[in-house]
Amino acid sequence: MSKQKKRRFHMSITEREHATILAALRLWQEADEHNRGDLRDIAEAVGVPLSNEEIDVLCERINFTVTREV
Question: Where do the domains of the chain lie?
Answer without folding.
Answer: 37-64
